[in-house]
Amino acid sequence: MIDNSAVGRLVIRTAVPAEAEAVSDLMVRARSTYYPDGIPDADADWTARWHEAIARPDGHVLCAVDQGRIVGIASFRTPPDGPADTVMLFQFHVDPGHWRSGIGTALHAACVEQWRTDGRRTAVLEVHTGNERAQRFYARQGWTPDPLRPADEGGHHLWLRYTVTGE
């Protein structure tokens, strides 16, 4: 557990299955800001999907909690066909009402700490091309375009890479 005094009473910890609905609601609010026509799979049972992600033994879901309320989430695990020393950041969201407050930076630092603990050397992620705010955030954290993975054919997502070790 991380208590980051730079952002007040923020605590970053592992999410529990009972929080799947709150995590799902936060993700939908955040993703709605960069999908102008609605988020993909809008009718999906996101609560059930998050419950599964939180319960996965091979993954992690961290949540940033401020005054008892989840204000940020990060979900990561080894990619399905990736090397064991690589981790994929599948979801990373901060509640839009808390952007630019330091929560994302603190949550990212907690992810990196966990990746180092797990012996990961590299992290990868896919970011929506229309989400320039997220791209700027990731660049500030040290993420760079992944030379091993070009943008998808439709040009909707970019792959980024982060070096976990050697910093």
Quick structural overview:
The protein is an alpha+beta fold.
Specify the biggest β-sheet.
8 strands, mixed
Instruction: Supply the CATH architecture.
Output: 3-Layer(aba) Sandwich
CATH topology: Aminopeptidase
Strand order, largest beta sheet: 1-2-3-4-5-6-8-7
Shape category = globular
Give the name of the CATH superfamily. Answer: Gcn5-related N-acetyltransferase (GNAT)
Following the backbone from N to C, one meets helices and strands in this order, namely EEHHEEEHEHEE
Structural class, please? Answer: alpha+beta
Give the termini distance in whole angstroms: 22 Å
Total beta-strand segments: 8
CATH class: Alpha Beta
Oligomer: single chain
Compute the average pLDDT. 87
* Approximate helicity band: 25-40%
Instruction: Quickly count the helices.
Output: 4
Structure write-up:
The protein has 167 residues and is an alpha+beta fold. The chain has a single domain, classed as 3-Layer(aba) Sandwich (Aminopeptidase). 28% of the residues lie in helices and 30% in strands. The protein has four helices and eight strands. It has helices at residues 20-31, 46-55, 103-117, 132-141, and strands at residues 2-4, 10-14, 59-66, 69-77, 86-94, 122-128, 144-145, 157-163. The protein has an eight-stranded mixed sheet, with helices on both faces. Helix 1 (20-31) packs across helix 2 (46-55). The model is unreliable at 1-6 (pLDDT under 50).
